[in-house]
Structure formats: C-alpha cells, structure tokens
Amino acid sequence: MAFNRFFSATSLLVLALVAVLITPSSAASNNHYDEMNLQPTKSILGIQGLVYCKSGPKVIPLEGSVARITCEVVDEYGMESAPMTILSDATDAKGYFFATLSPYEIENHKKLTQCRAFLELSPLESCNVPTDLNNGISGAVLASYRLLHDKNIRLYTVGPFTFTSS
Predict the structure, then answer these.
(1) Which of 30, 71, 72, 90 lies 20 to 30 angstroms, CA to CA, from 99?
(2) What pTM was estimated for this model as a whole?
(3) Residue 62 burial (CB < 10 Å; 0-12/13-18/19+)?
(4) Per-residue pLDDT of the chain (166 residues; tens, 9 = 90+)
(5) Which positions carry the signal peptide feature in this UniProt record (predicted)?
(6) Burial status of residue 48 (CB atoms within 10 A of its CB: 0-12, 13-18, 19 or more)
(7) How far apart are CA 2 and CA 9, in angstroms?
(8) Cα separation of 150 and 162, whole Å?
(9) How far apart are the C-alpha atoms of 80 and 13, rounded to whole Å?
(10) Distance between CA 110 and CA 103 in Å, rounded?
(11) What is the DSSP letter of 93?
(12) Distance CA 42, CA 45 (A)
C-alpha cells in the first residue's frame, strides 16, 4: 500500500515536471481553459476523495474502488464536443482516490465547461450498490479548489462517496 502511494506521488511529480518542461511560452499556449473559473490554465487538475462501504451502521473504507470524472467540453466556437472522461486510480486501504487531468490532454482550442465526479466501481460483490450521498450517482460538481503552487495543481475534493449492500 505504501508502494501505491509512493507510485501515485511519483507519477504526479513526473506529470508536473513534464507539464513545466513542455509549456510553450507563446500567447498561443492559452488555448487550454479551466472554464469552471473562466481562467486560462496550465495547471493540472487534481481530484481527490474518499469511498466507503456502508453496511448497516458500519462505514468502512473501500479499498480498490474507482471514481469517474467527466467534463463537458466545448470548442473555440462554443459548440459542445464529446465529454472527456477519466478514471481515478483504485482507492487505497483508507478509501482514498486521486485522479489528474493535464491541460495538455485537452485538444487545442477546447475548454472544459463543467466537471463532475461519480462513483464508478466497487471491488466487492457484497458492497457494490452506489448511493447518491454527496452526489456519488448524480455527480459531484468540481466547484472549489486549493492551489498547490509547488506542484502546479488545482486540487478539488469531493465526497465522501459510499457504496452499500442493497
């Protein structure tokens, strides 16, 4: 489990370093937007949260579950494009998940208009029914973030989300 956290942290650091190294300096590089704040961004979007299994009165962290992040996308003319979807890494033993979206993963002249996080997958047959607690089914809107200056990440937090047995 420590290895998974180390691997996730190392991957994040490498992504941030790559983003810094390949950032163009021309004005044309402002084609990537985080329209949730209507600001051009070269920041990596980070989405974190917790997933639990609720069985009766017990609530336990759910290791191995996955969240889905879906963003609406529009082109430079305001026309909607196909939504962009990414999956988080599997949750760790504490139910923690993390996902990243680099502005360089978005095609030129496109911008994100709204992103939401959803429950996607539970590894347990005995606890695999998603609930809408904190909008786990309907989609938790990514609304506010913390800026991690040292890693160039806009970190959004959602949840906690829960699965149940029935």
Answers:
(1) 30
(2) 0.71
(3) buried
(4) 444 444 444 444 434 433 333 333 333 333 333 444 434 456 788 999 999 999 889 999 999 999 999 988 887 788 888 888 999 999 999 999 999 988 777 666 577 888 999 999 999 999 999 999 999 999 999 988 999 988 889 999 999 999 998 7
(5) 1-27
(6) middle
(7) 10
(8) 32
(9) 32
(10) 10
(11) T
(12) 9
Residue 75's φ and ψ, nearest 5 degrees, are: -90, -175
Written as one string, the DSSP assignment of 22-74 is T---SGGGGG-EETTTTEE--PEEEEEEEEEEEETTEEEE-TT-EEEEEEEEE
* Residue 84, amino acid: M
Which tokens sit at 42? 């070269």
> What is the C-alpha end-to-end distance of the chain, expressed in Å?
29
DSSP state of 9: H
The amino acid sitting at 3 is F
The span from the CA of 103 to the CA of 42, in Å, is: 6
